[in-house]
Each structure stands twice: as structure tokens, then as C-alpha cells.
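Example record

The entry below shows one chain as it appears in the dataset: sequence first, then C-alpha cells.
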Amino acid sequence: MEKEYKMSQARADELQEELNYLKTTRSDEVAEQIKVARGFGDLSENSEYDEAKNEQGKLYSRIAELEEILQHVVIVDESSSTDVVAIGCKVTVKGPAGEAAYSIVGSQEADPMHGIISEESPFGKALIGAKEGDTVSVEAPQGIINYTVLKIER
């Protein structure tokens, strides 16, 4: 079974825009870099050429990654109301360090430093399906940490 990439429509649109940019504008820029570097002479000792080819490799790798993601994307319906934690909701929990609010998203949208947690992370997996008042346990490097779900919002 192919891996599914769960994300919002907005994030899928952002990735499609990035892919379009890489395939058109950025691809042309890298091709021009290679063309210019070839003009510097002997390719065996041409660091500009090597750098341009490395950049081309990175570009093709990112294009392939984006095409894979967009081919297997699953758009999450964030509008449905629910009484359990699911992708697209904001959940407030109480843990050892106090209260904190997190947004639960697909793995391609995660930004833990800003409270945006992937549903595939240990914390996200523990929260998915929990209801207000439930206590969830998360396995962390320092041991099991318990959190109580205080509030679920869409």
C-alpha cells in the first residue's frame, strides 16, 4: 500500500505551487548556471560546473518528492465538527508543564516549534481519538508523560 499524505487543501495548493515553480522558473535558472559553468573550460577541474550539477540533482530530487506527495495526497475535511481529537482540530491539554494548545495536522504541515503537531508523531498519535476529559500517555525519552485533554476546537 502506498503511503498517504494527509494535509489541508491549503497546504496541498502550496506544494503544487512550489512544484510548478521548480519545474519552470527554477529549472531554467539551474540550466543557465550549468551553461555558464561549461563556458569556464575544463569540466574536470571546474567547481562552478560541479556546484551547478549538484544544484540540479537537488532540484530533481525535490521535484520527485513533491510529485510523490501530491500523487498520494489525502485532503482532510477540516469543517466537520467532532467531539474527538482529529486532524484539523486545535486541542488544549494540561501536562506537567501546565496548559498548552496544539493544532493537529498531517505530517507535511507539522511545525512543532509553533505548536503544530503531526498526527504521526508520538504526541499526535496519543491525542488522535481522545475526547475532552481523557488522559493520554505519551512515551518520551524521559519516560511516560500524561496529558489531560481540556478542550477540542475546530
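Notes for this example: The two ends are 30 Å apart (CA to CA). The CA atoms of residues 92 and 144 lie 19 Å apart.
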